[in-house]
Design a protein that fits this description.
Blueprint (H helix, E strand, L loop, with lengths): L1 E3 L9 H4 L7 H9 L3 E4 L2 E4 L17 E5 L3 E6 L16 H11 L7 E2 L9 E6 L2 H12 L4 E9 L6 E5 L2 E3 L7 E3 L7 E10 L2 E8 L6 H8 L22 E9 L6 E5 L4 H12 L1
Antiparallel strand pairs: 1-3, 2-3, 4-5, 5-7, 6-7, 8-13, 8-14, 9-12, 10-11, 12-13, 14-15
Function: Responsible for synthesis of pseudouridine from uracil.
Keywords: Isomerase
Family: Belongs to the pseudouridine synthase RluA family.
Length: about 280
């Protein structure tokens, strides 16, 4: 990559130019050590795409890629597969499938997921394809500048057309993977709006202000509207065999240009079938 330097910085020493770069200090140090940062006249050349040793063994599966460029990959995750291994030696996660895709397409890069979604939740997962993008996306996540919108099929009649659930979430002392609303938990805020009212169910769109584990599932259960199919948090498994939660849309800024990017993931078949059945009743 090349950056055109302002006139007042042309000819300046590298030590002064590094303060001008939107890069993490750790990455600047690495670029300097590997001669990945060079000045050529009025241009600053950055070697942001080095070949990397893959960090996951590849497990092939067909991927639904929603977006890709030299900095970013967005994959539509199916139900029943974890984003990342949850225990040592685990295989056939989305990370292993992305590693296989990188290998097949000749991209010698590491797998860097920016956020996770639950095993049985579907929708977009964002990946950074180099250290620079990883730094920018991690920063954007901390500053709540990456927006994730979800569709959920909640049980019952959700009152009001819009609302906010502001309840802290902590770990359930009696269940290692379950979460619960707790005064001593971490702050958690979920915004929702009603999309469609169906028989004994409500289709809602949700926006996360925070990203706690199981946040939507815990919050909807806490207002007595658990997700259809979500047995862990009180939902019935009649209309769906998994929690009815889907990542509908992902909105982010490009790490290099700053331009807004967005993708929308189509509803999976089982979710559509559940909606069709409820609409017919």
């Amino acid at each position: 990559m090349e950056i055109r330097l302002p006139d007042h910085l042309t000819g300046a020493p590298l030590s002064k130019l590094t303060a001008y770069l939107p890069l993490a200090p750790k990455l600047i140090s690495k670029l300097l050590q590997t001669r990945g940062l060079l000045v050529q006249g009025p241009n600053l050349r950055l070697h942001l795409f080095p070949r990397e040793q893959r960090d996951f063994p590849p497990d092939w599966m067909e991927l639904n890629i929603l977006y890709e460029d030299e900095f970013t990959l967005v994959v539509n995750k199916p139900a029943g597969i974890e984003v990342h291994p949850s225990e040592h030696g685990q295989r056939k996660t989305l990370a292993h499938a992305v590693a296989a895709y990188y290998e097949m397409s000749g991209q010698e890069i590491r797998v860097r997921h920016i956020h996770r979604i639950d095993k049985d939740t579907t929708g977009p997962v964002l990946y950074a394809k180099n250290e620079f993008a990883h730094y920018q996306y991690d920063k954007a996540m901390r500053e709540k500048k990456i927006e994730r919108l979800y569709l959920a099929l909640a049980e019952g009649y959700v009152e009001g057309n819009k609302g906010k659930i502001d309840k802290p979430i902590g770990q359930d002392r009696h269940h290692s993977t379950r979460r619960r609303v707790s005064d001593t938990g971490d702050p958690a805020v979920t915004h929702f709006e009603v999309v469609e009212r169906l028989r004994d169910h409500t289709l809602v769109r949700l926006r996360l202000e925070t990203g706690r584990t199981h946040q939507i599932r815990v919050h909807l259960s806490s207002i007595n509207h658990p997700l259809a199919g979500d047995g862990m948090y009180g939902g019935k498994r009649g209309i769906m065999s998994r929690q009815a939660l889907h990542g509908d849309r992902l909105i982010w800024s490009h790490p290099w240009t700053g331009e807004q990017q967005s993708v929308r993931a189509p509803l999976p078949d089982d979710f559509n079938e559940a909606l069709d059945k409820l609409r017919q009743d």
